[in-house]
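Troubleshooting entry. Yesterday's outputs looked truncated, so today I'm pasting the complete records for two proteins to confirm everything comes through intact. If either block looks cut off, that's the bug. Protein one:
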Amino acid sequence: MGMPGVGKGTQATVLRELLGVPHVSTGDILREAVRAGTALGRRVKSILDSGQLVSDDLMRELIAERLGQDDAREGFILDGFPRTQEQVKVLDGVLEQLHISMDAAYVLTAPEDEIVRRLGGRRVCPKCSEVYHLETKSPASAGVCDACGSALVQRADDTEAVIRDRLRVYAEQTMPVAETYRERGLLREIDATGPPDEVAGRLKKAVGKP
């Protein structure tokens, strides 16, 4: 877990390759359920198509179904869940149902201004979806996509005001989740500042596989 833009997806991929277990994100769970066309997937599709949020009860079913699959038998990495205290209860119930215990909860940390810099500097091509960053991956010509020549844009959710609001929501809803796992003796904090490979090195050391 960690703030938006802290690098959760990148580091979850590192762990997936290191441990040989699936990287399970809530977004992937939803998309897979819809793609599979199961009864549960059709319920999810109707909710998403109507613009509503998937309830915690439905997420319980989806997560139980996903974590019960063969590829997750030796373990899995959860990304994006739980995000609230209520979802902690949901996950506790699923893990109990599957007779699984959690090994650890990793939280990636970085200063808020660093997150604003990372997300605020992102630019995307509206035509081919190529992603750039003003500091770390700038285009050859300022404001122009290298791949197709279209003008780059800043996504509405990458403006500073929106980013800080997302960080506020994270502090209010998800930080208490981290504290819950700290109280259980499961929380491991990883400094997420610096290049991704340096962060990966810290994460591997915390997992016990440097």
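Protein two, checking that the full record survives here as well:
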Amino acid sequence: MIKALLLIIKPPWAWEQIFHARRGVAFVLFAHLLPLLLLTGAADWYGLSTWGEILRGPQRIRTFTPGQAAIFEIANLIFSLGIAFVGAWLIKALGETFHGRHRFAQSFRVVAYGLSPFFLMRLAELHPAVNTWIAWGIGILLTIRVLYQGIPKIMEPDPPHAFGLFLMSSILLLFITGLVRFITDCYLQGHLARLQPLVDSLAKKLPF
């Protein structure tokens, strides 16, 4: 979480530290990404199980039991890890189209750290009065701002290709995160009613 804040406040300094540390995929995953996702997921779980979600249209609240909220957060955690790994693989592939040879560890560092502001913005969704799409928009804009300096530093593309790689990577992550947000928002708004029996049955198996 501290690294996520530093990337927002002092992105050049934070990326410099990340570059010199040269951490592997396992370290970035277990020391940075997972703790950040678990922290924001726990906060979101508390918000859903305490206040619920405001449905658009008529002003009413959709309530969630602690078990239902936990199942949603587990699914959200899986989606978030999918964004990180799929995004890293696609950005590595993008780098190769720009005549670069990059390791997966490089692209994973870019995505895992670059998406930190986006994941951190989930804390703003703690209260149901905060529109999830507004939080997504602010988070992805912060991520794009952070990636502007992170991609050239970590991926080390040829200077003529640096901006193109940044632009395509930003568009790619915007699309992936937007798609995941659309799916999760549809569930929260009650538009995926066919999934509810499965969520309820899994929630009943939890000890709370």
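Both blocks look complete. Sanity check on protein two: Residues 66-97 form the longest helix (32 residues).
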